[in-house]
Amino acid sequence: MLFKHRHILGTRQLSADDITLILDTAERFREINLREIKKVPVLRGKTVINLFYEASTRTRTSFEIAEKRLSADAINITASASSVVKGETLADTARNLEAMRPDVIVVRHAASGAAEYLSRKLSSCAIINAGDGAHEHPSQALLDALTIRRHKGRVAGLEVAIIGDIAHSRVVRSNLYALTALGARVRLCGPGTMMPSAMEQLGARLCCSMEEALEGADVVMMLRIQRERQGRTLLPSLREYSRFYGLDNKKLRLAKADALVMHPGPMNRGVEISSEVGDGAQSVILDQVENGVAVRMALLYLVGAPAPNEEG
Amino acid sequence: MNRGIVLFDRAAIRRMLTRIAHEILEKNRGTDDLVVLGIPRGGEMVAVELAKVLEDIEKVPIPCGSLDITLYRDDLGWRTIRPLHKTEMPVSPENGRVVLVDDVFFTGRTVRAALDALMDLGRPRTIQLAVLIDRGHRELPIRPDYVGRDIPTARDEDICVDFDENGLANAVRLIKPLKEQ
Q1: Is the Cβ pair B120, A312 closer than 8 Å?
Q2: Could you read off the pLDDT of A140-153 as tens digits, one per residue?
Q3: Residue A4 CB neighbour total at 10 angstroms
């Protein structure tokens, strides 16, 4: 069994076999997360740095729990409480951290390409991308794929509708690569100001209305409207957005009766998703969070497992 | 292909398991709290058959599960990522009489890892070890309680247990290293 990736920079680089290996590995880690003693010694003695330049609760906690359950030593660095505020560049920060000999750096940064940049600057540790700008968020897409596979038994052949701010979403890109690699068909829908046209070239179908996107969908993935960023300039009003692109029970009935409702969090209740749907029977939003820990354990295991006889 | 020499066939393996089953029942004075746990993959299949043999003798159900040890290995290697197997506990090992099962017993490192893995799942009253073949070359102070057969081997030889599509062991083969051409 070979996993040839030294870093996890995006899902674009991953083949269907790679993704299946990651999901199968995550399935095994799910079982460990249900035990009384939720810890295995596989990364004992390894140091993992979580370098977060953007606010995050879910992703950072999820990575930290994953690291601790694998017995790695986890260190958290948040930009607001570090030398970043003193003006240090990303490369300098990373080189200084590398000098302390970590084995894995998990990085989140507002700039697209930040994770790949670090992987080229640093030679001695593995990089896991925890979200870079509007580029990729691979662990999110992989936990989405795991959640879909667990509920539907497969990913191939499913119709997945992703709705919201397509242009600024790293979740969309990573999901598009991962889900199409696994054989799903992806439809994208959002307001004109949030829809890049080139997405078709990545194998997605662009839908003009939410109704068109929902029709017969097996999975409905709602994206968060980033109120703090795009909300003001790209949308006339949140209420209007909610009317055309928010998911409520009435719109959900257009999808298949057993369609899954997903959301990467945090939810803006009443904006892109109504509370009745977000908390409803078809929602698997908390399953996504649960699977997130297992998927991150799998990624850490695959890039961080001990290297006594490194070769090739 | 180097098929090696067949040392034992299906009938011989069946006899070994029947004898081991009787030894287990004798030593534990019955089946109370008995749990049979196989180490994937070979040991898991042997464990399933051993539990069946025990059930046939005693006419009571015997809990049987699997214990993956990959995350507890001391030789996890970079770039030869080992796929993880299932750990399935039919009952908690807490206070149980656990019989660990492996197909081929070699250095003892697999069993060392299994002991650690098992301790993280509970505290069994006793842990015993049953193996189909003991091929020698121990590197740790661990010995099996029940052995199908001792087969002294050279280090560069290999012992291979074949399973049929139903998971029944049907041959034990000794594979000698290919001669240098």
Answers
A1: no
A2: 999 999 999 999 99
A3: 10
